[in-house]
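Case study 2.
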Amino acid sequence: MQASVALSLPDLIDKVVAPLMEKVGEFWQNGRFRVAHEHAVSGVVRTFLGNLRFSKPAAEYAPTAIVATPAGQLHEIGAQMAAVTAASEGWQVVYLGPNLPAQEIALAATRKNAQAILLSIVYPQDDPFLGDELTRLHDILQPGTTIFVGGRAARSYTAVLETSHAIMLDDLKSLRRQLQALRGNG
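Prediction:
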């Protein structure tokens, strides 16, 4: 709680929330945390990020970003951090949550006239269906919507992301820069 008062929103996400969730994931992978521990921490962080996202409403004329994880991607904290990041940059954010088929993401983007889609891909790194989902999303999207993809497993899908003209992000700072550039061009 003190960090949310002492730090800017970008610093709070970059220096507290993201490292915390990386550590939780590490602890879960090496057996120091059980699934229940990971779920408990994730629940608290999910609520905290949801509150942050709504703490400063976007202007009515602000561009819109759709945020989700594609079908098969169940871990949503990265997507929530992306949603908070976009909101802090003045974007209207429509958060759809985890595990969404390409058709649903594209439909939301079309109905909201979204300029950006932010996808988080964390686990697994070898989903045999994810490539088709990403290709399908690109194919059914209306022109003018940029797809941004980040997350620990995103690099595993580099070939399909390049084919889909998605922009790969290494961190939330990159997302901020990309959203600022896109907004400047809008």
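Residues 9-29 form the longest helix (21 residues).
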